[in-house]
Amino acid sequence: MARKLIRRYLPDPHKIRDHRHLRLFGTLLHDPNLWHLNRRSASGGVAVGLFMAFVPMPFQMIPAAARAILLRVNLPISVALVWLTNPITMPPIFYFCYSLGAWLLDTPVHAVGYDFSWEWITTELIRIWKPFLLGSFLVGAASSAVGYLGTRGLWRWHVVRDWERRKKEREALGVRR
Asked: How far apart are CA 15 and CA 142, in angstroms?
């Protein structure tokens, strides 16, 4: 059940292999473990994708793909989850990460305007980089752990539910094993 649900939304592996940004991985993308859908690969892909979503860097898909290849977890899931942080969600998510890091470091939270330019990087980002990176790392690690455990738990729940359903169907038909 879980496998069918996930497969419905995943793109074709050939499309991903031919993606222009992922071609740099070459034959590494031909490893069948990167495309398998089982509890280990799916939960690992979720963990990698969620962690990389909170890493403040451009082109997060490439490092997410590299980590998925290195850990041999589901590549499409890890690359797709990176888009949790997109141009619309990035400012509030990164502000939350910055606020968390500032709170943990016991530094005041500055009102930070977001204007992605070289001037903004040299003035604002230099002032807030420590709490921002700390918060990003902690939120990424926490969401990665919750995503990993949640995916494994949901997968197991689906499997047990399907087994119970099949057991009841067999009992209703009078079939014994």
From this structure: 31
Q: Give the C-alpha separation, 32 to 27, whole Å.
A: 11
Residues in contact with 65: Cβ distance below 8 Å, sequence separation at least 6, in sequence order: 22, 25, 75, 78, 79
Q: What is the pTM of this model?
A: 0.78
Q: What is the DSSP string of 162-174?
A: HHHHHHHHHHHHT
Question: Helix %, strand %, coil % for the chain, to 5?
Answer: 75, 0, 25
From the list 119, 125, 117, the residue with the least C-alpha distance to 95 is 125
Radius of gyration of the chain (CA): 20
Specify the residue for token string 């074709």: 12
66 vs 71: CA distance, rounded Å: 9
110, 127 contact by CB (below 8 A): yes
Per-residue pLDDT of the chain (177 residues; tens, 9 = 90+): 456 666 666 666 666 666 666 667 776 777 777 887 888 999 999 999 999 999 988 888 889 989 999 999 998 899 999 999 988 888 889 889 998 999 999 888 877 666 666 776 677 777 888 899 999 999 999 999 999 999 999 999 988 998 999 889 888 887 665
